[in-house]
Design a protein that fits this description.
Layout (H helix, E strand, L loop, with lengths): L3 E3 L27 E3 L6 E3 L12 E3 L4 E5 L4 H4 L5 E3 L5 E3 L14 E3 L25 E2 L22 E3 L6 E2 L13 E3 L4 E4 L13 E3 L4 E2 L12 E3 L6 E3 L12 E3 L4 E3 L14 E3 L6 E2 L13 E3 L4 E5 L19 E3 L18 H32 L20 H7 L8 E4 L3 E7 L5 E7 L4 H14 L10 E6 L4 E6 L6 H6 L7 H20 L5 E2 L8 E3 L5 E3 L6 E2 L6 E3 L11 H6 L1 E3 H17 L12 H8 L17 H21 L10 H16 L1
Parallel strand pairs: 1-2, 2-4, 3-5, 4-6, 5-7, 6-8, 8-9, 9-10, 10-12, 11-13, 12-14, 13-15, 14-16, 16-18, 17-19, 18-20, 20-22, 21-23, 23-24
Antiparallel strand pairs: 25-26, 26-27, 27-29, 28-29, 30-33, 31-32, 34-35
Length: about 700
């Protein structure tokens, strides 16, 4: 009789008259010991016949579309089962059977990406033979229960415990400290509260802790073991980072972002010689960045974005390579110009009282001579009516640059077609080079269109006071009766649209994800970082420009809207590009910052599927196509050129893309109030970069 049946990645047409279903005749193979039917796109109900073969030692049905629930007496009729792989059966519902304790020989249990509900059974703690490195996977099940204390009964065998995104609530039981062989503990994306139990300090073999995206509180103590990876981001940790954390010399990855940490960065962190990744962003940390951190020669990522730091940014060691975006939104950081901060004031020098008096008298003498002279000079010019000619520049308040109409013609070779780099609804953009050698982009408005006048005025009004690394920098404007133009910095690598749809260019996962973090950084600034909130209104890949470092910059503010004080929305008759328009914008012309969030969600989907939102017919949209497909088969929607890895890396990239799709769909829900805000999007996508990097 047959003992092994391995038909993974094949169809079962030869075994059944109903292709795609598991044949009931399998139960006749009474000596069958191993059944592997992974990745067959099997459908229909989970056949109970599989669980009536008492000699079965291994069952693998992962990555299929089977439905139903596990039999409650499953382990009573499969006493010899050793390996059970039932992950990614998205229609598998019900509970994890309490009879699980009867599977006393079980060494591998994989139940992730299902729809199991209710509590984790206490009987799970009696699976004393679990000993493989890939041992207990329960993630992405809506369990909605507490982690049972009996989990600590797996003390001498459990190596890896993955229970993330399971809606587990309550406290982490102190019994987890009995899992003496544990290497990885991953409980991120749950509803855990309270403090990290000190008993975790007993786990001397622990290499990785990920408790991110919970509601954990209290002080981070020194009981967190000798780790290599520690992620406590997106929690409620407060007070100071303890000095004892510097004792974690083997730690390579530390993320404490999005908490409520206060106090200073402890100087003891310079002792963490193995540290490669450190994220302290989105906290209330104040004081200076210790110069001693320059000693961390292995440090490749250092982010203190959104804190209250001041003083000089270190410039030696690993700080030579860190981008400026990791230091923005602090109170008073200063240092090298490459960090996009103000230069530090020179150290004050001691001067004698005598020198101070001399300087004071010198300044007083200069004032007595020059102030009357200046007054007389100005009075004479006033009487003669010789005022200095004014530059007709709507953006004069934000720049000292003065570029005349004739200089623009000279720079662009009289607006030559050879210098044309783009055209839009209200005009054209030309590349130019000033006499100084500076490359510029000149947006010339088509004054034959009435709407172009309003578009020019809008851009001038909106861009007058905007300053952000992810917005195209405005140099000046030029305006007379027959000519209106805005002069912008030249962004050399063109648009995101070019990189998505041209055969000559390609963006990998990390590049796309980085660009899609830059865009919400700009939107977060427009929505919440300006004196008057700005609604961008026309977010799409052609308006996202990429510089020489592939950093994204938003351009074209021609139909943007400024919100007045106490305004959260307004009506407009100007409509954006079809396919990206939020329902609340398209139906009644009501725009708010939530419309930008919707458009961003659509563009995020487009970036990872490489499908234009306006290429679908009938009632189907890009959003609907992705939401119908990606949970069952991410490969059906992702850009086919994007996921190219093999083995474990392949599944890691697929899971990453699936989680990005989820973020995108949360941005473009129908109800404006239900859309994710840009600050949370930034945090979630930064987490994806961390997962991809490690």
């Amino acid at each position: 009789m047959m003992q092994l049946l391995y038909l993974c990645k094949n169809r079962l047409n030869q075994l059944t008259s109903n292709p795609g279903e598991i044949p009931k005749e399998i139960s006749n193979l009474i000596e069958l010991e191993a059944l592997n039917l992974e990745i067959n796109r099997l459908s229909g109900p989970l056949p109970m016949e599989i669980f009536n073969i008492p000699g079965m030692r291994k069952i693998s049905l992962s990555y299929n579309n089977l439905s139903g629930s596990l039999p409650p007496n499953m382990c009573s009729i499969l006493p010899n089962i050793e390996k059970l792989y039932l992950n990614s059966l998205t229609n598998l519902v019900g509970t994890i059977p309490h009879s699980i304790s009867n599977c006393s020989k079980l060494t591998h249990l994989e139940l992730s990406y299902n729809q199991f509900t209710s509590l984790i059974p206490n009987s799970l703690g009696y699976l004393t033979h679990l000993q493989n490195l890939t041992v207990l996977y329960l993630y992405y099940n809506p369990l909605n229960g507490m982690l049972p204390a009996s989990t600590g009964n797996l003390s001498t065998s459990l190596r890896k415990f993955y229970g993330y995104n399971c809606k587990i609530k309550g406290r982490i039981p102190k019994d987890v400290g009995n899992l003496s062989s544990l290497l990885d503990l991953v409980l991120s994306g749950n509803n855990l509260v309270g403090s990290i139990p000190t008993s975790i300090g007993n786990l001397r073999n622990l290499q990785r802790i990920n408790l991110s995206d919970n509601e954990l509180t209290g002080l981070i103590g020194d009981h967190i073991c000798k780790l290599q990876h520690l992620d406590l981001s997106v929690n409620q940790f407060s007070k100071e980072i303890p000095r004892e954390i510097g004792g974690l010399k083997t730690l390579a990855y530390l993320s404490l972002r999005h908490n409520k940490l206060e106090g200073a960065i402890p100087d003891s962190m310079s002792n963490m010689v193995g540290l490669e990744f450190l994220d302290l962003s989105h906290n209330n940390i104040f004081g200076i960045i210790p110069k001693s951190l320059e000693k961390l020669q292995n440090l490749k990522y250092f982010n203190v974005y959104f804190n209250k730091l001041n003083g000089e940014i270190p410039s030696g060691g690993p700080f030579k390579n860190f981008p400026s975006q990791f230091f923005i939104y602090n109170e008073a950081l200063c240092g090298s110009s490459r960090f996009s901060v103000s230069p530090c004031p020179p150290p004050s020098k001691h001067r004698s009282n005598r020198k101070k008096v001399l300087v004071l008298f010198l300044l007083l003498g200069i004032a007595l001579v020059f102030v009357p002279s200046i007054f007389v000079f100005l009075w004479i010019r006033y009487r003669r009516g010789k005022r200095a000619p004014q530059q007709p520049d709507s953006l004069a308040s934000i720049t000292r640059e003065r570029i005349s109409y004739y200089e623009l013609l000279q720079a662009t070779e009289a607006l030559s077609e050879s210098n044309l780099i783009g055209s839009g609804s209200f005009g054209s953009v030309y590349k130019g080079v000033l006499r100084s050698g500076t490359a510029i982009a000149v947006k010339v408005f088509n004054l034959q269109l009435d709407a172009a006048f309003k578009s020019f005025d809008t851009e001038c009004e909106v861009l007058r006071n905007l300053r952000h690394r992810n917005l195209v920098k405005v140099i000046t404007s030029c305006s007379n009766l027959d000519f209106k133009a805005v002069v912008l910095e030249y962004i050399p690598n063109g648009s995101l649209e070019k990189y998505l749809y041209s055969h000559n260019y390609f963006l990998d996962i990390m590049q796309r994800l980085s660009i899609m973090i830059d865009v919400p950084c700009a939107l977060e600034y427009l929505h919440h970082g300006c004196s008057s909130p700005v609604i961008y209104c026309d977010l799409k890949p052609s308006n996202v420009l990429l510089d020489q470092d592939m950093v994204a910059h938003l351009s074209d503010f021609g139909i943007s809207k400024l919100l007045g004080q106490n305004e959260s929305d307004l009506y407009t008759k100007t409509f954006a590009t079809l396919g990206y328009i939020a329902p609340d914008y398209g139906l009644n012309g009501l725009v708010s910052t939530k419309c930008d969030v919707y458009s961003y969600g659509i563009m995020l989907l487009e970036t990872f599927t490489r499908r234009r939102p306006n290429e679908f017919e009938g009632d189907l949209s890009l959003k609907q196509w992705v939401s119908y497909s990606f949970l069952e088969a991410v490969m059906d929607v992702v850009d086919v050129n994007l996921v190219t890895s093999m083995g474990n890396r392949f599944q890691k990239e697929l899971d990453l893309v699936a989680s990005i799709m989820k973020v995108a769909l949360d941005c473009c829900v129908e109800s404006p109030s239900g859309r994710t805000n840009m600050k949370d999007v930034i945090g979630m996508l930064q987490m994806k970069i961390q997962l991809l990097a490690f």
